[in-house]
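Running co-folding for zinc ion.
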Amino acid sequence: MTLEKPVFSDVHRFDSSTGVRIYRIACDAFPGLVANIYLLLEATEPTLVDTGSGFGEANAQLLAGIDKVRTEFGEPIALADIKRIIITHGHIDHFGGLAALHRKVPQAEIAIHELDVRILTAYEERVAVAKKAFRHFLQQSGVRADMLPGFMDIYGFSKKNVHSLPVTRTLVDGQELDGLQFIHTPGHCPGQVCIGVGDVLLSADHILPEISPHQAPESIMPYTGLGHYFESLDKVGRMGGFDLALGGHQGPIKDVYKRIAEIRQSHRRKLEKILELIRRSPEPLTTNEISKQLYTHVKGFHILLALEEVAAHVEYLYQHGKLTIANLDEYQREENPPLRYAVA
Ligand SMILES: [Zn+2]
Ligand SMILES: [Zn+2]
């Protein structure tokens, strides 16, 4: 590929206790979002962890990043040497670049957790199923009928222009592969995996340094939801032995155990806040009404993210017996009315 102009590529090196050299290549995923791709050397085979979004200059930045690992860090590596591509989870900012990469290195094996396999191998089917579930969710959340088409357009935007790809290896929890240890951490995404590389944890979007990873309710997709997410935070917390975590976005996490506690605490606060809001409301509230009260200034795609985030918390409160459905009659009578919650 010839590049007409030099592209930005930000590369950092980290070393694991097992001698694996980990290069972080940061690429623009979408406007306002940078995604980290990791190149692992000395993990037997040159391995890429995630591929970026494939949007805009993301692919060019990835290639420039690999070049930089060779020219500035002195590693004898080129794109053609990549033997394995691991996708940490089936979100577009992590696998969107895979199609273009697969064309350039068709011999490289592609690995993803078994719960996200079909996002790669049967993308069109997954999108069709996800869209219907999402529409159902919007109605149940109390989004007005005339707003649905606009919301569905925004939801569908990031799901265009991706095609199905072959997966050559499916990952399962506890699996070891050439010194890489896979930890299934469902919650943010059903097939989310973290990867232990000696004392370094590649925490993907399970644990991030500055933002609390996005949550959606498992009513849209099984193996997501706050309950699974809390269990997965505990799982990593119990493991011990990680001195550094490197996430799918943003910088390194020096104390992953402290960060786990912070994230857990921020969700606990949000759960309390939502419960209090419903308690103080003179009328039962829909998820959409709660979201509008909590996130007053969000626009576009962020309205959907806010709604999913709130819904994950409302679902968790309901699952744990803190909320009741105040319009059960209507719910039984109508096809899919908005659910109105009151404190149980
Ligand atoms: Zn993600
Ligand atoms: Zn991400």
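Result summary
Residues 256-280 form the longest helix (25 residues).
Residues 4 and 324 are 59 Å apart (CA to CA).
Job closed.
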